[in-house]
């Protein structure tokens, strides 16, 4: 039996701008998808007990929301050049990443599944092939992903991501963040479309924000490398303002940002696609921020980000 993992992620700075070619800074979250591989018949067994057989024939009419997992699985198999009848394993999935919250759960699942299939079938796939398989799956879930989620899911640590160039690792010390749940599902696809509409209809407004986000990502890299928490917090706050201008925040996220700043957070912002999902706060007293969120009805946890763990273990 072997274990494969994919890391959850947060985007510290630069979401949405990354879709337009600007840099973004992301980090692995101390939460992950883990897949145990055992002999079987090609089932993917999700935590909670639901099992999905590898389908020989997919439903007609293209991916629909309820079938997206089956299509994503199929996309990984085709990308890795696997003949479905060659799979004599089941894949048992566990995850502690809250789903649909902008924390990269689908990318972590895609990477872990690609690694599990690679290892079970002894393919010897390159990291590039794992990335291509994860990208194919993410395209089913999200349409046209920049690739930042699955890059971090694959490598862990901190990284600066640019479309085309990929992930450049950043050697920095992990630190902790408060991660709060807005209680509303994040809606990456809609928010990416909203920004695209603004970019088309009001390019000067959109470009001003997108460029600012790119510059903030660059200054954030310096702050992370220097360990300058105050500067990183300021960049996060400014990042959140620009995301509001782009129209991808929401009332719950705005309320969480106000509460976190009142509770002493150095910086706070949404992470990921927006419209809901998670909020991250950098704070010297994380429990104070959590307390403020709890009082306002928002769940949260504290987690290290930027940790680098082994990519795969076999036993
Ligand atoms: O919502 P998530 O965790 O999938 O993050 C989306 C990040 C965006 O920059 C908004 C889109 C992308 O593809 O990079």
TrEMBL record:
EC number of the protein: 2.7.1.36
Pathway per the UniProt entry: Isoprenoid biosynthesis; isopentenyl diphosphate biosynthesis via mevalonate pathway; isopentenyl diphosphate from (R)-mevalonate: step 1/3
Keyword Transmembrane helix: no
Keywords linked to the UniProt accession: ATP-binding, Cytoplasm, Kinase, Lipid biosynthesis, Lipid metabolism, Magnesium, Nucleotide-binding, Transferase
The protein's name in its UniProt record: Mevalonate kinase
NCBIfam families: mevalon_kin
Limits of the GHMP kinase N-terminal domain: 78-157
Top EC class for this record: transferase
Organism: Pendulispora rubella
Record's keyword annotation contains Magnesium: yes
Gene Ontology MF: a single term: mevalonate kinase activity
GHMP kinase C-terminal domain residues: 222-295
